[in-house]
Amino acid sequence: MIQFENVQKRFVSKDGPVNALDGVDLTIEKGQFAVIRGPSGCGKSTLLMTMAGTLGPTGGTVKIDGNDLYAMTGRKRNKIRAKYFGFVFQMFHLVPYLNVVENVVLAGPADGRKADKARARQLLEALGLSGRMGHRTGQLSSGEKQRVALARALFNEPPILIADEPTGNLDTENAAAVHEHLSKYHQQGGTVILVTHDSHTDVQADRELCMEKGKLI
Amino acid sequence: MIFFRLILKEIVHRKVNFLLSVLAVILAVGLYVAFTMLGRASANETRKLMLELGQNLRIIPKETQMDEFWITGFSDVTMPEDYVYRFAEKSGYSYTHLTATLHQKIQWQGNTVILTGVLPEVLPPDKSFQKPMTFTVKPGTAYIGAELASSLQIQENDDIDVAGVPLKVARILTFKGSIDDIRLYCHLHEAQTILNLPEQINEIKALECMCYTATDLDPLTAAQKQLKDLLPEGRVLLLDGIAQIRIKQRTSIRKHMNFIMSGTFLGCGGVIAILAMINVRDRKSEIGLLRVLGYQGAGISLMFLGKALVTGILGAVIGYYAGTQLALTYGPEIFPVTAKSIAADRSLLNDVLIWAPAFVMIASCLPMVFAITSDPAVLLREE
């Protein structure tokens, strides 16, 4: 389903060029729960963002269902991203001037869907946020924010969920809750690709990958 | 629709940035409107005040050979002395100083002399105690130019005879370094006798003349038109000193206004551009998120341009009314002569409704284009 062929990504930093991805070959099948572990700065997030079509590689090809993501136009890549991927970030990336429900439905129109608030409420209830729907994101705890982000990621029922350090800013209890929701999504047939720098993160993944200095080991 | 809602919600959320941007537009538009209105009032005021200073007219005989006139400084033909009285009595025309002269080049005691007969100033009826602008030569007296007096060794109180007319030298004039140094001034009627040109003159000078007839014609054409029937043998010229001052004054005002307007636009434009940039920079993460979610760059651009449009339109409308009010409040005090002509100008509203939103949109464009062409992941990382 997702295929990396000799993918490279080079940055130029103050200290010189950095090979964030150094010839990565990887295939992730539909329905897999893949965890990518590695120390900070090893290229995990770069791998994830390149996979989702949000960061162009310097070399190699990234394919999704056989379509080369970076050979297509930006417009088509945006559509693929809206259709295939849901995103959960460490920093949540919620829109501060929208309330909880509005943040969740924000994902809909990008995929040509209606901003269905009823569905958003349903998702939020399932994530234990029924009492927070009209709140602004600034009034939420970190755990609640991440659950809002998770609801937004699931709103379009994407086949793939990209989670970049989703528990990095959460306490153990909230982290466990997020992992539980990710597992539930996986059990319903979704593909999860989770990145974490924490080797102790306890998730029931069916594939574990390790990165170091831009390479999968 | 979603973008419209996002625009409104973002405006409410970032009130300070929005209000500052609108304020900058209000300031720029307000000053533009006020300065434009006051600028026009100022130009009208100056024009009217300058007109109130009046025109300085030279009336010479119609048949004058102009090339000779410009060389010698006086006409070689004459016109009736009566013209000066007709001019004085003309209704619809006022003047401050009115004189008639008769100039001729003569040979006297072996010297070339410019004999100038001067009629005492004809005073306006309402200014009978006004101090004359030029000296008055009493009958039986003469004023002698310095060069002429020196050449003929003439001194004050000497008795002289000019073509059978006895005159007493009342004054030796100081050196002027001009044709006046060889001039012999006497009363007009004595000059007419000397030259055998009874009741003839060859120049009328009317200073600070004002025509009370409303006309759109330039001052010279208006004067020529008005005096055509009154003085059929006369030709009207305009002394150019005042005209030059008027042109300089108008140019100076225009430059002054241009400077103020440029400074205003530059200052307010800079503030708007900086605020637009700050807004886009603050929203990089939001742009990144929208792009990650799959929104197209064009849609995201619409969101920013829409906000710029709202900012520009709001600022333009408020600025227009604020500027108009400013001009209407202070304009009549500053420009009392043209106070009644200071009025709101709707065409200025049309102007600012176009350029103010356009300017804010242009100011937002550069950071916005940068944001929507960057990789979404890069924008998210910058938070």
Give the SSE map:
The complex is a heterodimer of chains A (217) and B (383).
Chain A: E1 2-13, E2 16-28, E3 33-37, H1 44-51, E4 59-64, E5 67-68, H2 74-84, E6 85-89, H3 100-105, H4 107-110, H5 117-126, H6 142-155, E7 160-164, H7 172-187, E8 191-196, E9 207-212, E10 215-216
Parallel strand pairs in A: 3-8, 3-9, 6-7, 7-8
Antiparallel strand pairs in A: 1-2, 1-4, 4-5, 9-10
Helix pairs in contact in A: 5-6, 6-7
Chain B: H1 2-13, H2 15-53, E1 55-61, H3 66-72, E2 79-80, H4 82-89, E3 93-94, E4 97-108, E5 111-118, E6 141-144, H5 146-152, E7 159-162, E8 165-172, E9 183-187, H6 188-195, E10 200-201, E11 203-211, H7 219-230, E12 234-238, H8 240-282, H9 284-293, H10 297-334, H11 346-373, H12 376-381
Helix pairs in contact in B: 1-10, 2-8, 2-10, 8-11, 10-11
Describe the structure.
The complex is a heterodimer of chains A (about 220) and B (about 375). With about 220 residues, chain A is an alpha/beta fold. Chain A has a single domain (about 1-215), classed as Rossmann fold, CATH 3.40.50.300. Chain A is about 30% helix and about 30% strand. Chain A has helices at about 45-50, 75-85, 100-105, 105-110, 115-125, 140-155, 170-185, and strands spanning about 1-15, 15-30, 35, 60-65, 65-70, 85-90, 160-165, 190-195, 205-210, 215. In chain A, strands 6-7-8-3-9-10 form a six-stranded mixed beta sheet, with helices on both faces. A four-stranded antiparallel beta sheet of chain A has the order 2-1-4-5, covered by helices on one side. In chain A, strand 1 and strand 2 form a beta hairpin. In chain A, helix 5 (about 115-125) packs across helix 6 (about 140-155). Chain A is globular, with a radius of gyration of 17 Å. By secondary structure, chain B is of the alpha+beta class. Chain B has two domains: about 1-50 and about 245-380, no CATH class; about 65-230, no CATH class. In chain B, strands 1, 3, 4, 5, 6, 7, 8, 9, 11 and 12 form a ten-stranded mixed beta sheet that branches. In chain B, a hairpin with a 2-residue loop joins strand 7 and strand 8. The interface of A and B includes residues 87 and 111 of A.
